[in-house]
Design goal:
Blueprint (H helix, E strand, L loop, with lengths): L1 H4 L3 H6 L9 H10 L4 E5 L2 H4 L4 E2 L2 E6 L6 E5 L10 E5 L3 H15 L4 E5 L3 H7 L2 E5 L1 H8 L1 H8 L4 E4 H9 L3 E8 L1 H7 L3 H16 L2 H8 L7 H11 L1 E4 L1 H16 L10 E2 L1
Parallel strand pairs: 2-11, 5-6, 5-7
Antiparallel strand pairs: 1-9, 2-9, 3-9, 3-10, 4-7, 4-8
Amino acid sequence: MWDFEHEPGKSRLAERYSIHQTTPAACADELVQGTADIGLVPVATCAFAPSLAVVPGCAIASLGDIRSIILVVKHADGVKGVRKVALDTSSRTSAVYTRILFHKYWNAEAEFVSHAPDLEAMLNVADAALLIGDPALLALEDRAAREERTGNKLIYLDLGHEWRALTGAAWVSAFWAVRPEGLHDAAVNADAVSHDFQQSRDNGLAHVDDLVAEWSTHLAVPAETIHTYLTHNIHYHLDDACLEGLQLFYRYGTECGALPAVPALTLL
């Protein structure tokens, strides 16, 4: 979002786009309901709304450790012993990935419940908790302190790492999805939209140090951790590896009943 939030791009793009922020799941809901035209959505969205198009080239993905999507397990036997999993309500895609991993590799009998991202409350009702985004990063930072406070030793699994190790595929969390009719109504050229978002991605990557400085004031996470996260954990390009990983995700998600069908992705 660099160009959308920083000059000189901010003023120029404000003439074309009206921006507001919400959770990934809510972005998907707004697109489906027609109250938004473009959204950074969980990739599972297209399985439920196949008419959406995808902005080419841009993604939130990982080719290994992702850090901000973790499964915290309290069962002494690890994932094999988990009977109930509390799923962070912020993103449906991470929930689908988790269901796939349990269905295919860990424990197909596990049950799943949706829960607000509060680690202690989640572990009070389940054997494991899925956390994404800032709550995941903060839980990792608090890991040693929590163990000292409680005496409980938990298992923290990086789901990007687990997915890559078990499937060999890229993990793709989100991409920009578009309602094609929304672009038509606004008389916006698809190529221009793709260029705007790809250029913003590239300019953001060119300003990582500035982003670290900004976000160090918002998160109780060391600047070094934020820099590593932005430069090593997250992969920002919807390339062939990501498209192949998506096809595996959709197929496995459909096979385990977490998704209704494998969508045919349409690039804008």
